[in-house]
Amino acid sequence: MSEEFRRFTRRNAGQKIDIIDIMTETTIGTLVNISEYGIMMIAQIPIRTDSIYQCEFKIPAEYHFRSPFIIGIQEMWSEPLTTNGVMCVGFRIIDIDNIDRLRIFEWVNEPIPVQ
């Protein structure tokens, strides 16, 4: 992956956010972190090199932007986490509505509450 994409500000998910493949209506993974141009997830299914998905993020009710994000993503890299096939996978966002991109930008850049 290009160093250019790695420089964007990222936001850890903080809570469980499932990523649903819209075509199959199945959960393909759980969000780890997100930037305006990419995501990292823990895959729950095998992800092929360069695979493309149209996905919906199931946003927890307590998030202020309760409606889901719908994006197109392309696999850029993957790394096994365990011997049982669990993978950490990086994706580039290749298709997104301008409103959803703005929502992600605002989320990534909002201050993290102190606990």
Q: Could you characterize what this model shows?
A:
The chain is mostly beta strands and 115 residues long. 14% of the residues lie in helices and 43% in strands. It contains two helices and seven strands. The chain has helices at 3-6, 98-109, and strands spanning 11-12, 18-21, 26-34, 38-43, 52-58, 69-80, 87-96. The protein has a six-stranded antiparallel barrel with strand order 2-3-4-7-6-5. The longest helix is centred in the last third of the chain and has 12 residues, at 98-109. The N and C termini lie far apart (34 Å). Mean pLDDT is 86; it is low at 1-5.
Key words describing this protein structure:
single chain, 115 residues, mainly beta, six-stranded antiparallel barrel, 2 helices, disordered N terminus
Rounded to the nearest angstrom, the radius of gyration is: 14 Å
Multimeric state: single chain
Instruction: Show unreliable segments.
Output: 1-5
SS-based class: mainly beta
Summary, kept brief:
By secondary structure, the chain is mainly beta. The chain is built from 2 helices and 7 strands, in the order αβββββββα.
